[in-house]
Each structure stands twice: as C-alpha cells, then as structure tokens.
Specification:
This protein is of the alpha+beta class and 267 residues long. Helix content is 18%, strand content 40%.
C-alpha cells in the first residue's frame, strides 16, 4: 500500500467523532480545526498540499496542489498528525455539525470516490485530495457544487461527513435514482452523474424542492444525507430574530396574537 494503514473507531450517534489509532511513524491528514484530542506523542504539522506526494516536487507543485483545494472550498493548508512515540497513539477528529462520519476504504471502490466539497474530514497519509471537473455543462451550472467536485484517490482509508442520517444506495447497471442536489454526499467513479430540470411551472415555483435534481445512474454506490448544511442554515436564518430583536411566531395571525398577549403592542 502507498497510503498508511490506519485503524479507527467511530463514537457517538448524532454528533460523532472518529478516533484514529496510529502505529509509530504513521500519519493521518485532516482539515485544520477538525482535531478534537490527541496523545502527547502525536506531533501536529501544518503543510501545503495533501501529503500524498503526488503534487509534484518543489514549492511550485505544493502551491498548485493547495490551490486546487481552494477551488473546492477547502482550506489552503492541511494538518498532518504523526505518531513519534514508541507504541500506538491516538488522535480524534470531530464532525463540524450534527450528522454521520462515513469511513471509506478506497480499495473497495477502485481507488476513487467523488464527493461534495466541504465533506472531507480526514484520511490516511498517501490519499490524494483533489478536484473533479464535472463532464456535463448542466451539472456544472446547476449541480449546487459548480463545475468542481472533490475527489479522493488512493489505497487507504478516508473519512467524510454527512449531515443528519446517512443512506447508502447501491445502484444496479442502468438503475436511476433522482436526488436533491444538496442531499448528495458522494458517489463512486462508475456512477453517471447529471443534473436535470424538475419540470413544470407549478413544480418550479411552488414545489419547494428546488429547480434541479441530481440524476444518478448505476452501476455504483451513492451516499445521501438527510440534513444538508444549506437546509439547516436556511432554517436557522428563517428563525432568527427580525429587526428590533423580535421574532415572529409562525403565521402572521398567531404571531400577532402572541405579541398582543405578551403586551408587545403599544396602543
């Protein structure tokens, strides 16, 4: 194997974290700010690129690799955690919001999966974290992720995060699954990915499901999340206090009645 062979254990249900077990001199790469705790013998080092060694030699190659990560919405730097001790050591990484951590053994998926940006959490050193250009113009403009998706390549373990409950679907050859664009987390390299118009004026204006959906055609595996971060953020914004520090109840009539009973209206 080119990637370091790490062991792991996932804790929790709604707010998960993953504990990585490192043998001496083993390294795990992670997003900056994802670390929750680590043993004293684990050394943290911030680097350019993904540590896979595939970004080329010299500063220019590393800058190019880091620049590709910026295009996917990730940080310019990555953090390497290496066991410098004699025995096994542990480092843990937490999910950024309620949901599920997905362990992915890339050797089981022909060495590559494609995922939405911001979903990557950590991976064994040697896994390449790069960009995947969508092959179809429609998917690029309307897929919710632009022309660029994220790809994880190699022969090691990688960990991605999904919001809410995770659903894994194995598609048979020719089988089609239509998915809300924000709910799509990741898919394997053989899945045919396209974006299609929902259709119909009423569906577009009043359907509440967006104008486009992702069309996934097998064979391959698709991972779907029940709570996209964008949906959670929209709900929080909609429930935030309005101007003046007051928040209306749901429905203008009940909201006004609540203000009246609370003595909030001046006559």
């Amino acid at each position: 194997m080119n990637a370091h062979e790490i062991d792991y254990k996932i804790y929790g249900h709604d707010m998960q974290f993953v504990e990585i077990e490192l043998d001496p001199q083993e390294t795990v790469m992670a997003e900056p700010g994802a670390m929750m705790m680590m043993n004293d013998a684990v050394e943290m080092n911030t680097i350019f690129g993904d540590g896979s060694g595939k970004e080329g030699s010299g500063l220019l190659g590393k800058l190019f690799s880091a620049g590709k990560r910026v295009l996917t919405g990730e940080n310019l730097f990555m953090t390497a955690f290496t066991n410098l001790g004699q025995g096994k050591q542990h480092v843990s990484f937490s999910a950024p919001y309620p949901g599920t951590i997905i362990p992915v053994d890339l050797t089981q998926f022909n060495g590559k999966i494609i995922c939405q940006k911001d979903s990557f959490l950590c991976a064994a050193k040697g896994v390449s974290i790069g960009i995947e250009m969508t092959k179809k113009i429609g998917a690029g403009f309307f897929g919710g992720e632009g022309f660029i998706l994220q790809k994880l390549e190699g022969d090691g373990m990688a960990f991605i995060h999904a919001g809410g409950t995770l659903y894994k679907r194995d598609l048979a050859p020719g089988e089609v699954l239509k998915v809300d664009t924000g709910s799509l987390v990741a898919f394997t390299r053989d899945v045919d990915y396209d974006i299609q118009y929902v259709g119909g004026i009423k569906n577009t204006i009043f359907g509440g499901e967006g104008v486009f959906y992702a069309r996934m055609q097998g064979p391959g595996t698709v991972w779907i999340q029940s709570l996209p971060l964008s949906r959670l953020a929209n709900r929080i914004i909609a429930s935030a206090p309005k101007s003046g520090g007051k928040q209306r109840g749901e429905g203008s009539i009940l909201g006004g009645l609540g203000d009246l009973l609370d003595g909030d209206n001046n006559f």
